[in-house]
Amino acid sequence: MFKVSDIITTPPAEFSTPLQRKVYEAFSALGIPFERVDTDPGLTMEDCRHIDEKIGVRIVKTVFLCNRQQTEFWLYVTSDDKPFVTREFCGALGIPRVSFASAEKLEELTGVKVGATTILSAILPSAAAVHLVMDRNVAESEWFACTDGTATCFVKIKTEDLIGKYIPSTGHNLLIISNES
Predict the structure, then answer these.
(1) 51 burial via Cβ count (<10 Å: 0-12, 13-18, 19+)
(2) Confidence label for 43 from pLDDT (cuts 50, 70 and 90)
(3) 162-171 per-position pLDDT tens digit
(4) Which residues, in sequence order, are CB contacts of 50 under 8 Å at separation 6+?
(5) CB 5 within 8 A of CB 137
(6) Is the pLDDT of residue 53 over 80?
(7) How far apart are CA 16 and CA 149, in angstroms?
């Protein structure tokens, strides 16, 4: 049985990563209320379904992409039920073909391991050059749920707090695109 805690409204007592600490410090400093659940490692879509049920909103899918030269990087947030179509993503941004970036680059630039990819990584200085892209359907939803930078803790906040407070506090711009898939 996949373990999902009851809803918690306080930060973890101990932080697993520097990113996790920064996320909750930012929530506090920016006055962003949150709900979170502690879980077994949430690595599959089936795992996420258990989490979705507990927190009452679907976990977003976040992919880490790069150009062929591995000099440009994108964190793309979309709904979990939309397939990622390279042609559509690149067409919406007017960029050449992209592919999935390596696990090493993911950890180096965003401070997370595979399975914990999150737009909340934007707060890290190492993520300064990573482009943030979000599907319009996600941006227009009331709630946003993702990992807190670990594969064992998932957080839910108002999407308007993410877009209006958190992302601007990181110095990033967020590009919102329409994905037709």
Answers:
(1) buried
(2) confident
(3) 999 999 999 9
(4) 2, 4, 39, 42
(5) no
(6) yes
(7) 9
- Its pTM stands at 0.94
Rounded alpha-carbon distances, angstroms, from residue 69 to 43, 81, 91, 98, 101: 28, 29, 19, 10, 11
Compute the average pLDDT of residues 69-83: 93
| Type of residue numbered 119 | I
**Phi, psi torsion values for 74, nearest 5 degrees:** -135, 135
- pLDDT confidence of residue 1: 86
Sign of the torsion angle spanned by Cα atoms 109, 74, 156, 44: negative
- The CA–CA distances, whole Å, from 77 to 15, 144, 148 equal 24, 10, 14
Strand segments (E) across the chain:
35-38, 61-67, 73-78, 98-100, 130-135, 143-147, 153-158, 174-177
Q: Which two tokens stand for residue 178?
A: 């329409």
Asked if residue 96 lies in contact with residue 67, where contact means CB atoms within 8 angstroms, the answer is yes
Query: Are 164 and 157 spatial neighbours (Cβ–Cβ below 8 Å)?
Result: no
Amino acid 3 reads K
pLDDT tens string 23-36: 999 999 999 999 99
